[in-house]
Write a structure and sequence with these properties.
Distance between the termini: 25 Å
Number of strands: 8
Number of domains: 1
Order of helices and strands: EHEEEEEEE
Strand content: over 45%
Largest sheet: 6 strands, antiparallel
Radius of gyration: 16 Å
Shape: globular
Length: 141
Amino acid sequence: MINLPYSSNLTSFCFRLKPGQDLKKELLYYAQVHHLRAANIGSAVGSLKTASLRLADAKLTTAFDGPFEIVGLSGTVHRDGIHLHISLATKEGRVIGGHLMDGCEIQTTAEIMILENTDLIFSRELDNETGYTELKISNRV
């Protein structure tokens, strides 16, 4: 079964995170302060001193010592929670990635652009097929 597509106007939010800030915590805080209800990451570049990821099919978080370059960050953002995947490159050029978890400390900067879908609402509900709370998209009334 294919879900019907949703369409929306967009508003962009651009900001910079500074050394020592926690990437995930700051993104969630930003979404809460700005009352984002249906957003996604448009762009993210920067560096991390440490990284905490939940790797594919893992139950626990794995911590890594950097430095790392952020080479990709994607996913959904709303004031009630975020679901983001990150790709990081080591100084040797190796790439690791997984679910973004608390504990990803900014090293020098993180330049972020978030795109808010102003006509939609994102929420999460339990999907019996996957056993996870999955994205639910609704039109904003």
